[in-house]
Design goal:
single chain; about 280 residues; alpha+beta; Thrombin, subunit H; 3 domains; six-stranded antiparallel β-barrel; about 15% helix; globular
Length: about 280
C-alpha cells in the first residue's frame, strides 16, 4: 500500500485560491505554478512536461553516494578451512590496502580468504586485532573487482550521535551483498547500539554515517531474555564496534611493517607438489 502525503502549505494554498476564484481558474493557476512532474518508475525517472508527454528518461539510483561506495568496498571473509564466513570493508589505511572486520570473524587465524566479485579471492594477513573492541585489520593485495574507500574513522562516541543515519553492506546468512539502513539508537559501553537489521554473517561489515565516516564494524546482534532462561536473537538491535578505543599508533606500525601478501595459490588439503615441482 502506498501512502500519499500532501503538505499543509499546498492545502492552505488551494483553500485560499478556492475562496477567491472559480474552480476552473484555480485549476489553471495551480497548473501554471507547478514545476514539471517527476514520475518514478522501477529504475528510471520519467520527466514529463506540462502537457503530460515524456521529454527525457534519466537513470537514477535509489542508493546514496555513500551506500554505493560501501557496496563497492564490501567483501566476504572466509576461513581457509571453509568453516563459516563474515563480512568486511576494503580500505586504504596509511597508504596500504587493508580489510577491516570484527575480531571474532578472524578469531585466532593469521590469514583469511578475502572474496570479491566474479570469483576473485585474495589472501589477507591479520596484522592487528583488538578483542575487547572486536576490531581486526588484515593487509591485502590490490583487488580488481573491489574499490577501496579511505579509512576515515569517527573517533567520538556520545549522545550527540543518537539519531544519526547509518548504512552498511554485508553478507548475512546466505545472502549476497545486502545494503542495510538504520540509525543510532543509543551509546552503551562505548559501543553504538543501532536500530537496523543484522544477522549471522554480517559481522565485520563496515558501518558508515551519511557523511561517509567509518563508524565501526558490525559486532553482533542483541539477545532478548525471556522467562525460564529463554533467549532469542533480536536482529533489529545491532551493536557496532567502536574505533575510538583501539591503539591507532600500534595499528599504523603494524600496517606499515607488514609483509607483502599475494593471491591465493592453494588451500589446505590440496595435493602437495612433488620434489622439484612448482605449485601453480
Amino acid at each position: 500500500m502506498t501512502r500519499v502525503y500532501i503538505s499543509a502549505l499546498s492545502v492552505l494554498s488551494i483553500l485560499f485560491l478556492g475562496s477567491c476564484a472559480p474552480a476552473a481558474d484555480v485549476a489553471a493557476q495551480i497548473t501554471e505554478d507547478l514545476p514539471p512532474v517527476v514520475a518514478p518508475t522501477a529504475s528510471t525517472v520519467e520527466v514529463t512536461n506540462y502537457f503530460g508527454s515524456a521529454s527525457e528518461i534519466l537513470d537514477v539510483s535509489s542508493l546514496s553516494l555513500i551506500e554505493r561506495r560501501a557496496r563497492k568496498a564490501a567483501v566476504k571473509i572466509e576461513s581457509l578451512l571453509g568453516n563459516g564466513h563474515g563480512s568486511g570493508t576494503y580500505m586504504i589505511a596509511y597508504g596500504h590496502r587493508v580489510v577491516v572486520t570484527a575480531a571474532h570473524v578472524v578469531e585466532d587465524a593469521t590469514t583469511m580468504r578475502i572474496v570479491g566479485r566474479d570469483g576473485e579471492s585474495v589472501v589477507g594477513r591479520v596484522v592487528f586485532r583488538d578483542d575487547p573492541a572486536d576490531v581486526a585489520f588484515l593487509v591485502v593485495p590490490e583487488m580488481k573487482t573491489r574499490t577501496a574507500v579511505r579509512y576515515r574513522p569517527h573517533m567520538s562516541y556520545d549522545e550527540r550521535l543518537i539519531g544519526t543515519k547509518l548504512t552498511y553492506t554485508g553478507f548475512p546468512s546466505h545472502h549476497d551483498l545486502l545494503t542495510i539502513r538504520g540509525y543510532v539508537s543509543a551509546i552503551e559501553k562505548g559501543h553504538i547500539v543501532a536500530n537496523m537489521f543484522g544477522w549471522f554473517g554480517s559481522s565485520g561489515s563496515g558501518v558508515f554515517d551519511h557523511r561517509g565516516r567509518y563508524m565501526g564494524c558490525v559486532s553482533g546482534i542483541d539477545i532478548g531474555r525471556f522467562g525460564f532462561g529463554l533467549r532469542m536473537p533480536l536482529e533489529s538491535i545491532v551493536w557496532v564496534a567502536p574505533m575510538s578505543s583501539i591503539d591507532h599508533e600500534t595499528l599504523r606500525v603494524r600496517i606499515l611493517t607488514a609483509d607483502p601478501v599475494g593471491v591465493i595459490r592453494s588451500f589446505p588439503g590440496a595435493r602437495a607438489p612433488r620434489r622439484g615441482e612448482v605449485r601453480r
